[in-house]
Write a structure and sequence with these properties.
The protein has one domain: 3-Layer(aba) Sandwich (Rossmann fold). Helix 2 crosses helix 3 (114-125). The strands form 2 sheets. A 7-stranded mixed sheet has the order 1-3-2-6-7-8-9, sandwiched between helices. It has a two-stranded antiparallel sheet with strand order 4-5. The chain has helices spanning 33-37, 80-99, 114-125, 146-149, 172-184, 202-214; strands at residues 4-9, 15-20, 43-48, 52-55, 61-64, 107-112, 132-136, 159-164, 189-194. The protein is built from 6 helices and 9 strands. By secondary structure, the protein is of the alpha/beta class.
Length: 217
């Protein structure tokens, strides 16, 4: 089981958000956002720490990463084994939330950058219905296998995609292509873009809070 940071707001807990950090960060990265969201319900936020591994695009330097990255260009090689291994780890966190009394339909998977890619990959193939998927500054990994691997349970699960138009790390066009692929597959995607680089802004946090507040969980 991955090590996690947990923050609860309210009692008794009736929902959970499993939030995955980006490359080189850790579970503390989005800890400050919990109070900024000001959600009117009792939620457990679970922030897992990715394993430490060498990352090719960063010269083999060891850091927290959900999978290896060789390049960020479209059509480049993807670390399929690493992506699937991380998805299995997130599945285990969903198992744990269920063991603590939460139905899967009260769980949101969220992530930023590389964490958002794993959240998307996991949720769209997860056989248990989830409340929603929040994917920030990210892209759809292993897109070519989605059509044959997608789970019926989450065909209509709400997805919020948000991206900075000035992002120098994950190109805006790559995010747009991921959005278009999901729409073509029939997913319920809400799209937001902001005049920002590879980061999070106040307007985006407000949109996240609004989206979470509208979910049927």
């Amino acid at each position: 089981m991955l090590e996690t940071l947990e923050i609860t707001r309210g009692e008794p807990i009736d929902a959970a958000v499993i939030w995955l950090h980006g490359l080189g960060a850790d579970g503390h990265d989005f800890e400050p956002i919990v109070d900024e969201l000001e959600l009117p319900r009792a939620i457990r936020f679970v922030f897992p720490h990715a394993p430490v591994r060498p990352v090719t695009i960063n010269g083999g330097q060891r850091m927290r990463a959900w999978y290896d990255i060789s390049s960020l260009g479209p059509g480049g090689p993807e670390d399929e084994a690493g992506i699937r291994a991380s998805a299995a780890e997130i599945g285990a966190l969903i198992d744990r939330e269920q063991s603590r009394g939460l139905e899967s339909a009260r769980i949101v998977l969220a992530g930023f950058s590389q964490g958002g890619a794993v959240a998307l990959h996991t949720a769209l193939r997860e056989p248990r219905r989830l409340a929603g998927v929040l994917a920030l500054s990210t892209y759809l990994p292993l897109a070519d296998t989605l059509h044959t691997e997608r789970a019926i349970a989450n065909r209509h699960t709400p997805i919020l995609l948000a991206h900075g138009r000035l992002d120098p790390v994950i190109p805006f066009r790559l995010a747009e292509a991921s959005r278009d692929r999901l729409l073509a597959e029939g997913y319920a995607v809400e799209w937001r873009s902001y005049e920002m680089p590879h980061s999070v802004c106040l307007e985006e946090i407000q949109d996240i809070a609004d989206w979470l507040g509208r979910l049927s969980w």
